[in-house]
Amino acid sequence: MKISRSEISYILFFSLMATLLYIHTMGHYFLSDDFNGVYRFGQMSFKTIFAGFTNLNVQLYRPFIPLFNKINFVLFGDNPLFWNLINLILNLCNTILFFYILRHFLKKEFAFFISLLFLVNFSHTEAVVWMSGRTTLLISMVFLISSLYFIKFIETKKKIYFIISVIVYTLGFFTKENIFVFPLVLVFLVYTRKSDYRYTIPYFVIMLLFAAVRIPVIYKLQSTTIAVKYGFNFIKNAIYIFSATLIPLNYAKIEDQFAYMGVIGVIKNNPSIILLIFVPFIYYFAYIKSKKHFLIIFTIAVILSLPVIFLPGSGERYLYLPSTVISIIIGYAILTVKNYKIRYTLLSAVIIIFSTATIIKGNIWNRASYISHDIVNQTGFVKNRIRDGESVYFKNLPDSYEGAYVLRNGIDVILKYIDSCNVKITKTPDNNSKSILYSGGILRLK
Questions:
Q1: pLDDT per residue over 118-148, tens digit each?
Q2: Which among 82, 81, 114 has a CA at the least distance from the CA of 96?
Q3: Residue 393 three-state SS
Q4: Is-above-0.90 flag for pTM?
């Protein structure tokens, strides 16, 4: 495939923007599930990891994730810089893939600006900065690669493209379960290209085979992680999915506050939440500007949201893949404004607002990582000082910092991580001290 000079310029610009947006988060320390990815998967043997491919009787079947993290660990150890750098590269690759998909439908200039809107979207911060968010980045890459080759097959009828698309799609089931919606999206791709629907049959067959194997297991092992939730949770997620990619609020912090403040308390503490009333108007504006395509594209956004719309919680990483379609809706609406000055003024304003929000959210995750690093260092110090018969008690360990996870899934795996590596001590108390004060609370010796 020949790459034109303009496309090279676009790719270089994407690379520059990705670096500017996330360079301040490079070296960001491990948080929450990251310690599982670094310690538990890093200590696994390749034999154990490959054995996991045949074990379908598990709650979450994602054997490619420990394999990917194991390779990461073998190459770079537990240096946070390289773990963050890989997430940054994955995000950049997804942006470039998205650009080449759009090139099959839109003018090169339109494809570039819509891809740029995707790159700078503030809802991506959790997926890119939080190292455990790479699961989302990887499954999105699978989705985009398979889509690109399917489109290339439709246009050229070269069977090799179809084979690659099917193989990549199949591998997606070893990465994350939400790949199951992919055939539904293909139906719309076939419709827009006026092609043969029979090309989608292999994808549906693979999806049904996987579902036949996994659904009985999921039903048996059903937990709060995978349980389907209805009622208020469904409504909340539906609103969240179609607003959190447009209005730059700290939704994770708002959700944490809602648990003990209620609706009125959340509004009082976050008056900017009133901006959500503009979301319907934004979509209405997009509808007016692109009636011909809006309903199809919006339906695809709904399909991409199906795997997460019933889930408890509303992590921003869930918005990563749906934001591709939201970027198309908003970008196309702006780019079809006839007045040249208004068009690029609007576009520039959105890009600046989104980029600023992304950097601000990255700083929140940075501060959360400082707390995590402090806890690891001081816990390591305490463990090295306790004598036989003494115990360590943890008080007020932080679940999160303004919505950014710190110790959301407990400290057990962190204790194992500390035992497996050399912990650099950053704060040393008096020799006679019986307690150590840190950001989250007190580690108390008794």
A1: 999 999 999 999 888 899 999 999 999 999 9
A2: 114
A3: strand
A4: no
